[in-house]
Design a protein that fits this description.
The complex is a heterodimer of chains A (about 140) and B (about 450). Helix content of chain A is about 30%, strand content about 35%. With about 140 residues, chain A is of the alpha+beta class. Chain A has two domains: about 70 residues, VC0802-like; about 70 residues, 2-Layer Sandwich (VC0802-like). Chain A starts with a strand and ends with a helix. The mean pLDDT of chain A is about 90. Chain B has two domains: about 325 residues, ANL, N-terminal domain (Rossmann fold, 3-Layer(aba) Sandwich); about 90 residues, ANL, C-terminal domain (GMP Synthetase, Chain A, domain 3). The longest helix of chain B has 19 residues. Chain B is globular and about 75 Å long. The model of chain B has no long low-confidence stretch (mean pLDDT about 95). Classes of the chains: A alpha+beta (about 140), B alpha/beta (about 450). At the A-B interface, strand 1, strand 3 and strand 4 of A face helix 11 and strand 19 of B.
């Protein structure tokens, strides 16, 4: 599977709200591969990539959080000038806009991974694959 | 000791200083007429029929207690014009007050109603210092709310020059006060405190203004607030009372002796009842005010339950008026809030949430008064069906809630989206409003 499941949580912008999420994951022995926080003065959206997303979602919901699963694409980005531009060029040619994205590194040292959220993830996956930009599979992500 | 704070003037001595026995006779005659006229409204016709009431069966003022009560819900059940007793051609004005949900409550006026309303306002304005040579600034909103227009025409009736400043734009209000040499200010007491803040920021001292009097209404206030305003502006401030369902401002108001608000008893009968038993409270005890309008044409109203808690005050007033008086309003028997002088019900906010989400989420309203200006915040618990992982959509949700609330209440609420189950659940009655404005009514 080339699309990855991301969990999005509604959190208030106040002391302890991020920790409350982490405690639940810790209690269920769930490791966070990466996370990103989009925040405003009053609230935020916490986006998580975890290996056992269904288990994590169930645990978080049981703890009272509002959780949404979203399909995202994890794309390797070369650690050189123009690495990200290569990907964005493909998207531009196909007139696809990015809802949001965030980066992280793991394992491989020569490239970073960027997580992309598209309105139409299947279509994005298709055009990127055709252009020779393969997404990182979930298996690889959590290997 | 001179009991008067200012010169004692009476607008209509014949009416205001009438012999009490004579006034009771007038009230009885007018009550019969009011019952006869209210019979034009199907709601009252039916109620009177059930209770066997005819105008002729009203033999003394005690018979008032046989008449049915009217509630805000009754008015709502006959939306929009079910409580209008005259043909459309006789209406010359329509105002509205806050409904308890999405719809307002309409009130109509004939030409005679407007004439009466102006005179009632003129009575308390003159009692509180207004004279024809003055300039008076009305900083109440002009619109559906009865405060602006009611006071406007009252000032004109006295013969003073009125500046229809309306509400908002405090900088301009201050400019008008200063440059137009305003003598009398009409607004809510909390707005007066806000004006004082701006005046002081500009380094203005009381002596820089021609201001001498203020007439406050539209919201609850305290003696401490009165003292603070009077000292800061070097003026005398007077309290008045009224509500749209009855006529608007002009039901009662203070005189120069400030012994309570004189009720205009030739046009209204005010009862004070226990809100549970609906029986009269002992003289001088606090209860819910129930008001019957004796002379209104467009919207006669019988025994309207105001939900306002106050006391009726007996005894003579040194001003010479012979009318009974009422205390400040001490509170409400329902959950109505007054925000910047506007009546708002939590059920209106709930209606707005319902329109956005289909069902209303858990919510709490918080009221603050930073810089003497009311601010309303509604905390709304997020629900799974409304959550999106796109920030833009959450902003859109928040803005939509805000727009719906403003659409219904006319008041801007700051909307905060909060985590599920983060708002306190009480075991008994749900507490929807947390008022942190620190008002203590003495």
């Amino acid at each position: 599977m080339k699309l990855s499941k991301q969990l999005s949580l509604f959190v208030e912008n106040k002391p302890g709200s991020l920790n409350a999420v982490c405690q639940v994951l810790k209690d269920h022995q769930i490791n966070i591969r990466t996370l990103s926080l989009a925040d405003t003065q009053q609230f935020g959206i916490l986006r998580l990539l975890v290996k056992e997303h269904e288990k994590a979602r169930a645990a978080l919901e049981a703890a009272g959080f509002i959780v949404k699963s979203t399909d995202v694409l994890a794309l390797p980005v070369s650690d050189r000038p123009g690495g990200l531009a290569d990907i964005l060029n493909v998207l531009d040619r196909n007139q696809m806009s990015v809802e949001y994205m965030y980066a992280f590194t793991f394992g491989r040292s020569e490239s970073a991974v960027m997580v992309f959220r598209f309105e139409e993830p299947e279509k994005a996956l298709q055009v990127l694959t055709e252009a020779g930009v393969p997404a990182v599979s979930e298996i690889e992500l959590f290997a | 000791m001179n009991p008067f704070l200012i010169e004692n003037r009476i607008f209509d001595p014949a009416a205001e200083c009438m012999d009490p026995a004579e006034r009771r006779g007038l009230q009885l005659e007018r009550l019969r007429n009011a019952v006869r006229h209210a019979g034009n409204i199907p709601f009252y016709r039916q109620k009177f029929k059930e209770a066997g009431i005819t105008p002729e069966s009203i033999r003394s003022l005690d018979d008032l207690r046989r008449l049915p009560f009217t509630t805000k819900q009754d008015l709502r059940d006959h939306y929009p014009f079910g409580f209008f007793a005259v043909p459309r051609s006789e209406l010359v004005r329509i105002h509205a007050s806050s409904g308890t949900t999405g719809k307002p409550t309409f009130v109509g006026y004939t030409r005679n109603d407007l004439k009466l309303w102006s005179e009632l306002c003129a009575r308390f304005l003159v009692g509180g210092g207004l004279t024809p040579d003055q300039v008076a600034q009305v900083s109440f909103g002009y619109g559906l709310f009865t405060g602006g227009f009611g006071l406007h025409y009252g000032i004109e009736r006295v013969g003073a020059a009125v500046i229809p400043a309306s509400s908002g734009n405090t900088q301009r209000q201050v400019l008008l006060l200063k440059d137009a040499k305003v003598n009398t200010l009409i607004c809510t007491p909390s707005y007066a405190l806000n004006l004082i803040d701006v005046l002081q920021d500009q380094g203005l001292k009381p002596g820089d203004l021609a201001l001498r009097y203020a007439h406050f209404g539209g919201e609850q206030w305290t003696e401490d607030m009165r003292k603070a305003i009077e000292e800061a502006l070097g003026i005398r401030a007077f309290n008045n009372y009224g509500l749209s369902e009855i006529i608007g401002p002009g039901v009662s108001g203070e005189c120069a002796a400030r012994t309570g608000m004189h009720i205009q008893e030739d046009h209204f009968i005010v009862e004070c009842v226990n809100p549970q038993t609906l029986e009269p409270v002992a003289p001088g005890e606090e209860g819910e005010l129930v008001i019957t309008a004796l002379t209104k044409e467009a919207c006669p109203i019988i025994r309207y339950r105001t939900r306002d808690l106050a006391r009726l005050l007996e005894g003579d007033c040194p001003c010479g008026r012979t009318t009974r008086r009422m205390s400040r309003v001490k509170g409400r028997t329902d959950d109505m809030m007054i925000i910047r002088g506007v009546n708002v019900f939590p059920s209106q906010v709930e209606e707005a949430l319902l329109r956005v989400g289909g069902t209303a989420p858990h919510y709490v309203i918080e009221l603050y008064r930073p810089h003497n200006l009311d601010e309303a915040v509604v905390k709304v618990e997020m629900r799974p069906q409304e959550f999106s992982d796109k920030m833009e959509e959450l902003h859109r949700l928040r803005d939509r809630i805000s727009r719906e609330i403003t659409g219904i209440t006319g008041i801007h609420f700051q909307v905060e989206l909060v985590e599920p189950n983060s708002l306190e659940r009480s075991t008994g009655k749900v507490k929807r409003v947390i008022d942190k404005r620190g008002l203590k009514i003495d």
